[in-house]
Amino acid sequence: MSPLSMVKRSTPDTSMVYELWISELLTSAKRYRDEWHRHSSDAFRTGTVYAYYDVLSKLYHIAARLGVDPESLGLPDELEREIL
């Protein structure tokens, strides 16, 4: 079962909102990650790394609040591997 389909277990009115929100945050995280890897020498100076970490942290907390296992999104591993 995909992480986004697990979100659909919430009420019908809110599940679509959460699904779109998580999807948009994942897209933002990928954009920041790609930018970071393209310009790795400037990533800390320009704040790209911090923006990437911020988006992933938000995803982690959203998943936890919704009762979705954050590890199913790969967030804890990615946070540790990418940032630390």
Task: Provide structural commentary.
Keywords: Plasmid. With 84 residues, the chain is mainly alpha-helical. The protein has one domain (13-83). The protein is 76% helix and 0% strand. It has five helices and no strands. The protein has helices spanning 3-7, 12-38, 43-46, 48-66, 75-83. Helix 2 (12-38) runs antiparallel to helix 4 and helix 4 packs antiparallel against helix 5 (75-83). The longest helix has 27 residues, at 12-38. The model has no long low-confidence stretch (mean pLDDT 71).
* SS content category: mainly alpha
Q: What share of residues is helical?
A: over 70%
N to C succession of SSEs: HHHHH
- As for the number of domains, it is 1
Task: Give the CA-CA distance, first to last residue.
Answer: 29 Å
**Total number of beta strands:** 0
Radius of gyration: 14 Å
How confident is the prediction overall: mean pLDDT? 71
Morphology call: elongated
The DSSP helix count reads 5
Low-confidence stretches: none
Main β sheet profile: none
**SS strand fraction:** under 5%
Keywords: Plasmid
What's the layout of helices and strands?
Layout: H1 3-7, H2 12-38, H3 43-46, H4 48-66, H5 75-83
Keywords: Plasmid
Kindly summarize this structure in a few lines.
By secondary structure, the protein is mainly alpha-helical. It has five helices and no strands. Keywords: Plasmid.
Could you list some keywords that capture this structure?
elongated, mainly alpha, 84 residues
